[in-house]
Amino acid sequence: MGPQHPSTHGVLRFILELDGEYIVKCKPDVGFLHTGVEKQSEFRIFHQVFTLINRLDYLSGPQEEMGYALAVENLLGVDVPKRAQYLRVLLCELSRIASHLVWLGTGALEVNMSSIFMYCMRDREMILDIFEHLSGARFFPRYWRIGGLAWDVNEDWLKQVKAFLDVFHDHWKEFHELVTENPIWRQRAKGIAKLTLEDCLDYSLTGPIIRGCGEPYDLRKVFPYSSYQDFEFTVPTQTAGDAYARYLVRMEEMNQSWKIARQALERLPEGLVKVEDTKIAPGALPRPWGKNASVMVADKRITSAPLREGIKIPEGESYHAIESSRGELGFYLVSDGSNKPYRVGLRTPSFMAVQALPKVIEGSLISDAVVAIASFDPVLGDVDR
Amino acid sequence: MAQTKTNFALDKVMGKLSALGANLVSAEKLPGNQAVQLPKEKLIEGMNALKEAGFTRLAYLTAVDWHEKRHEFEVLYFLHSLSAAQRLCVKVRVERGQPHLHSVSHVWPAADWYERELYDLFGIRFQNHPDLRRILMPDDWMGHPLRKDYPLTEEPVHFLDRAAPRLPSELIPKKYAISTAQAPAAPPAAAATPKPTLADATKDKPAA
What we know:
The complex is a heterodimer of chains A (about 375) and B (about 210). Chain A has about 375 residues and is mainly alpha-helical. Chain A has 15 helices and seven strands.
C-alpha cells in the first residue's frame, strides 16, 4: 500500500502480507519525504531555521514555530512579553483547530462521508485567511521571531478572528450532529485500532492517542509554557482507546481550543510583542497592512536589517516540548556560541505514531487499516523530516 | 520553562545508579534541570533501574556529534515518568572511531525506530537491535549525514532538454550568503542584483 495511495495521507508505504482481506504482517516504509532539515539547520542562522521547521508538520505550521522559538528563548534565557505570549497561544489554538479540521474532513472521507469534508474545509479556509491577513502566508505564517513576534496585530485582524470564533462553535455543533451519531461512522470506527495505555507508553505515543486511552497527559497542563496556566480549559479523555475514542477526543479538543482562543482574545494585554533588547529582536518595523501586503515585503525587510548576520546564542543545550495537534513536539538545541545552531534535534509525534501502526493494523481488515491510519493522523513531513 | 521541583522519581533510584558509576551533571535548560551521565557498559542495567523507578516512557532519543571538541558522540535519552510528572535526560558517551552501543529497544519498544535513525544519520551501531537498517535515507546511501565531517553539498538537477537551472549558491546574492567555515565550497560570484530598499518594498503599499 502506498507510497501513492489516497488513504495514507502523504507518501507513506506499507509492505503488507495478506491472507485474503486480512493483514497478517505490516512493515511501514518511511523516508520518502526526507529533506534533511536537521542537517540543513546547522548551516542556517537561528532565524532562518523557522522557515525549515514549519514545513515539518505542514498542517500546523505555527505550532512548529512556537516550539522552536521557545527552545531558542530557553537557551537565551529571555521571557517574551505577555501580549506576545497571548497572541502566540491564540495562533497555536487556531492552527490546532485547522489541523483537526483537516483530520476530521479527510478521516470522514475515508469512510465515504464526503459532505463533512466540504464543511471542514470551509472553516479551515477562514483560519487560513486569518493567517494570510496577519503575515501574507496561509500555511506557514513565519510570524514568530526569537524574542517575540514579527509585528503587532491591528484592529481589523482582531475583528476577523472574533468573527470566526463567533461562528465556529455553531459549526462545530453541526459537525457533531453530522458525524458522532452517524451509524456508518460508529460502525467503522468503534473497536477499530484498539490500544492500551501500556502500548502508548511503550511506543511513546502522545497527544490525542494517549488521551484516547484514558491518560490526561497534555503538555499545556503538565508543563505549562507561554502562559497556558492563565487559561481555563480541560483535557478531554476517553477510555476506550479505539478510533472512535480518538475521534471524540479530537472533537472535544477543537471545542477547548475555541475556548482558549476566545479567552486569549478577550484578555489580550496591551504592550510590546517583542523583548525590548534590540540585540535579540532588532528592527521594530511596522507591518505594511493592506491588500497587497505580502510575505515577500516582510522578508526583504528582514534580510536587509541587521538580522542578516543573526544573533549569537550562548553556548549550551536546551530541550523544549510543546503540545502540538499530534502530541509532544520537542526541539533539542545545541549552540556552540555562534550564530548558527550546532545541532537541532526534532522529536516529532508522527514518527512514533507510524512506528506503532503495525501493532494495530496486523490482524485487521484492509478497509479497517485505512481507518486506523486516519485515526493516528500522521503527517508525513513530520515523520520524515 | 525551567522546572524547580525536586526530582523524586530520580532520588529513589539515584543510589542504584551511583553504584553503576553514574553521576549527576548540571543541565539547567534540559527537562528536569539535571542529567544523568551513565557509563556505556552499564547502560542496560541503568535503564532497567530507571524504568522500574517509574520512567516508563522514552520520550526522545537523539545524539550530538562532538567531532572536534571531544571526538565522541553523546547519546541522549529523554525519559518521562507519567505518575510523578517528571522528566529526565540520560547521557551516554560513545567514542567516535567504532561507535557501538547496546540497544534499549527491549526496554522501551519506542527506541526501535529512534535507534535506526541514529544508525542511519550518525552511524552508531546498536547491538541486539531487532532490525538495524537505514530508515530515512535510501538503503544504498553512503555515509552518515548528521556527522560533522559530512559536508552539506548541492547537486545540479539534470533535465532531458538543455535547461540547466542554477544552484542555490549561485542564486543567492553574495551579500545575503552567510559565511561559514563548514560550507564545502565558497559560492561563486553571482550577478550583482540591485539591493532591495525599504522604499521599493513599500512603494505600492497603502499605509496602515
